[in-house]
Amino acid sequence: VLYKDGERKVIKMELEDEERGYFSVEVDNAKPGDMYTYMIGGKEYPDPASRFQPEGVHGKSQIIGDFSWDDYNWKGIDFPIIYELHVGTFGGDFEGVKRKLDYLKELGVTAIELMPVHQFAGNRNWGYDGVLLYAVQNSYGGPQKLKELVNEAHKKGLGVILDVVYNHVGPEGDYLSVFGPYFSTRYKTPWGPIFNFDEAYSDEVRHYVVQNAVYWIKEYHVDGLRLDAVHSIFDNSPKHILEEIRDAVKEANPKALLIAESDLNDPRIILPKDKCGYCIDAQWSDDFHHSLHALLTGERDSYYADFGEITQLAKAIKDVFVYDGVYSKFRKKTHGRQVGNLPGNKFVVYAQNHDQVGNRKDGKRLISLVGEKALIAPFLYILSPYIPMIFMGEEYGETNPFLFFTDFSDPEIIKGLREGRKRELGEYYYDPQDYSTFEKSKLSWKLDERILSLYKELIRLRKELFNDFSRNVDVKIEGKACIIIRRKEKYLVIACFSKTHLDLKAKSIITTVGMPSSLPGEVSVGAGVYEEL
């Protein structure tokens, strides 16, 4: 059903039945701005591959026009230092993010990673409840504004990575099952129906998802994709869907960066094909975060029960995974696998991210939990041999929380969501549907210049002094509370979690946090970068 001239003219056309469940019709007089739907059984639905939903997930789809790119001089991300942000709470919309590009460039990061922007129900959401993979969120500005953001980022020398969700779709506005068997009958996730990648009719579902990955690379010029929760992507096909996505994306742009989120501690995701891997470029390492967070906060609940020893942090720095084939008390089974000699750029590390902050009951950031001790963290992960990722606001000491928020309109979904949060978090929690929850999560932009200067200096050091991803680093524990990382033979990154005496002879090469400018001597809680004498 085609709506032209502001719906004053409605044209209905019958689609022809093709092979394997496809239907098509050729339309001569459609143009950008025209709205359309598919009518099935007398009811109208948005296009599952809609480019834009100006009326939201339940409304009509819109034809979009071409964009005039002028990012010709952009060569891609050479040395990834990632800044993860949520569009709505960082800048309000794509235009707001664009206004902060100069700030991000001055900070020193080389790429921004946008939490999911495909169309979700309502105006506010983390993005993981999206239901239309090809449509750009209307409340953020739609496809035109996203392209403008990417184009401008490239002109300023910043890459753009997009977080995409191929394990499930959200609960409201999902009409895919009307169009075919898009969802698995075997597997489930706690978040929503899971894509059918290995049952009958799965070829068409795989094509829908694989081409979506290519779509972002080709039509939006994004430099990479972060693949959400790949441990919840189930596929028993001879060629795993992750490998198929990888091959298609690399054909579209060989320099495109693919990063997987996985809690399996399994290097198979990033191993090359000749070692039976999926050949994804990099994966997140939660063990690095967990071991650092547990030491700083003293928390031992949930998965932090497996962490808290300084030896574990040392292992995460040296070997990536703490649980690499050893028994996990939290999981009550052996977990993970050793990564061997894989280089550091196969792993992304962080002290905070949207999950680790936002899934807390109070949404508190590290600096709100431990104060000045939080400033130990960037020394360890930014100057590690891995790809560092900063969570928005962390770099200047943001204290506003990052909470879980939604904007559903379906009463049953809202009721189920609130009941689930109550079961998980207890009687008192921030209502995700309350607009104030979203408001509380917005960045205040009250910059602590001292903290911001520290982050800028650490990023500069990472680029100029520690500008490789070699895992050939020496990590040792001094006393019971200090970690010393020796890089390039003479440079020391030192982090102390309690008062200790260090016998090393060294002088600091940047401003330290709670540490003396030279050693040996007594040191308190803090961190610094030193050159051995």
Tell me the layout of helices and strands.
Blueprint: E1 2-4, E2 9-11, E3 16-17, E4 23-24, E5 35-36, E6 38-40, E7 43-45, E8 61-62, E9 82-85, H1 87-90, H2 94-99, H3 101-107, E10 111-114, E11 118-119, E12 132-136, H4 142-155, E13 159-164, H5 176-179, H6 202-219, E14 224-227, H7 241-252, E15 257-260, E16 282-284, H8 286-297, H9 310-319, E17 326-328, E18 333-335, E19 347-349, H10 354-358, H11 366-370, H12 376-382, E20 387-391, H13 411-425, H14 435-441, H15 449-464, E21 474-478, E22 482-487, E23 491-496, E24 500-508, E25 518-523, E26 526-532
Parallel strand pairs: 9-10, 9-20, 10-13, 13-14, 14-15, 15-16, 16-19, 19-20
Antiparallel strand pairs: 1-2, 1-5, 3-4, 5-8, 6-7, 11-12, 17-18, 21-22, 22-23, 23-26, 24-25, 24-26
Q: Describe it for me?
A:
- With 533 residues, this protein is an alpha/beta fold.
- The chain has three domains: 2-62, no CATH class; 84-464, TIM Barrel (Alpha-Beta Barrel); 474-532, Golgi alpha-mannosidase II (Immunoglobulin-like).
- It has 15 helices and 26 strands.
- A hairpin with a 4-residue loop joins strand 1 and strand 2 (9-11).
- The chain starts with a strand and ends with a strand.
* Percentage of residues in helical conformation: 25-40%
* CATH hierarchy: architecture of the largest domain: Alpha-Beta Barrel
Strand order of the largest sheet: 9-10-13-14-15-16-19-20
* Cα-based radius of gyration, to the nearest Å: 24 Å
What is the name of the CATH topology of the largest domain? Answer: TIM Barrel
Number of helices: 15
Overall mean pLDDT score? 97
Shape: elongated
Query: What's the multimeric state?
Result: single chain
GO molecular function, one term: 4-alpha-D-(1->4)-alpha-D-glucanotrehalose trehalohydrolase activity
Keywords: Carbohydrate metabolism, Cytoplasm, Glycosidase, Hydrolase
Enzyme class: hydrolase
Catalytic activity: hydrolysis of (1->4)-alpha-D-glucosidic linkage in 4-alpha-D-[(1->4)-alpha-D-glucanosyl]n trehalose to yield trehalose and (1->4)-alpha-D-glucan
